[in-house]
TrEMBL record:
This is Ras-related protein Rab-12. Its EC number is 3.6.5.2. It comes from Lepisosteus oculatus. InterPro entries: P-loop_NTPase, Small_GTP-bd, Small_GTPase, Small_GTPase_Rab. GO terms for biological process: autophagy; endocytic recycling; exocytosis; protein transport. The lineage of its organism: Eukaryota, Metazoa, Chordata, Craniata, Vertebrata. The keyword NADP does not apply. Keywords: Autophagy, Cytoplasmic vesicle, Endosome, Golgi apparatus, GTP-binding, Hydrolase, Lipoprotein, Lysosome, Magnesium, Membrane, Metal-binding, Nucleotide-binding, Phosphoprotein, Prenylation, Protein transport, Transport. It comes from the Eukaryota. It is found in: Cytoplasmic vesicle, Autophagosome; Golgi apparatus membrane; Lysosome membrane; Recycling endosome membrane. Residues 1-41, 229-248 are annotated as: Disordered. The keyword Membrane applies. Residues 232-248 have a biased composition (Pro residues). Its cofactor is Mg(2+).
Amino acid sequence: MDPRNDIQRRGGGGGAHTGVFLGGSPALTGAQSRRRKMPPRPADYKLQVIIIGSRGVGKTSLMERFTDDTFCEACKSTVGVDFKIKTVELRGKKIRLQIWDTAGQERFNSITSAYYRGAKGIVLVYDITKEETFEDLPKWMKMIDKYASEDAELLLVGNKLDCETDRVISRQQGEKFAQRISGMRFCEASAKDNYNVDEIFLKLVDDILNKLPLEIPNRELSNSILSLQPEPEVPPELPPPRPNLRCC
Ligand SMILES: Nc1nc2c(ncn2[C@@H]2O[C@H](COP(=O)(O)OP(=O)(O)OP(=O)(O)O)[C@@H](O)[C@H]2O)c(=O)[nH]1
């Protein structure tokens, strides 16, 4: 069975409805009034995911497609790091996902590397139409081995699948690369066509949840998994190097 089928999706992100009223203040029904008084249910988990890969592969585009369902034909290159937050529901749990979008340009590596350690999931992206972005993958794996937590979930993404006619990296090449890295998943996607984008992030979250203990008291969570609040304004301290290299 395809594990993606297990992913439950939820539309309506928080149920922010806008009513149209024809004059005057609308009277609230009993049910509406009760609903307004209900505070939003806090997140069960807060997780951090980082997107890395060479310049122009579509990291920002994947993030923005997932968080805002938008696509920019001519985006500016990311400077340093940027982040967005999206709340998703999986297996009855509410998860506040913080997605870090990193600059692909090498000159920002010293900044971006500081964000690897806190990530429970890492999305490594290449462009299926640009060979050099695929050839750069071992370099990105070295960054992961050096800076990321050893138990971070890894997902390799071949982006720009809508450009099939310009493809220079076959699906098999992507699959083969991922198979050589312990625990790394692989998929192809298109931020432009919104193909496999939700699946990338939801599958990653699903895999992360799989690794977490089933029932953790909320108090414990707030000291560990929920450690992202308040949002960090400065990068966390650099972690020690990973002892067991995953890169081949
Ligand atoms: N055809 C196509 N173009 C895409 C896709 N995703 C991104 N692009 C385009 O590729 C270019 C680079 O996209 P970005 O999302 O800025 O890439 P990035 O990896 O964040 O780039 P840096 O911030 O420089 O590292 C933009 O012109 C996007 O419109 C896609 O799925 N298909």
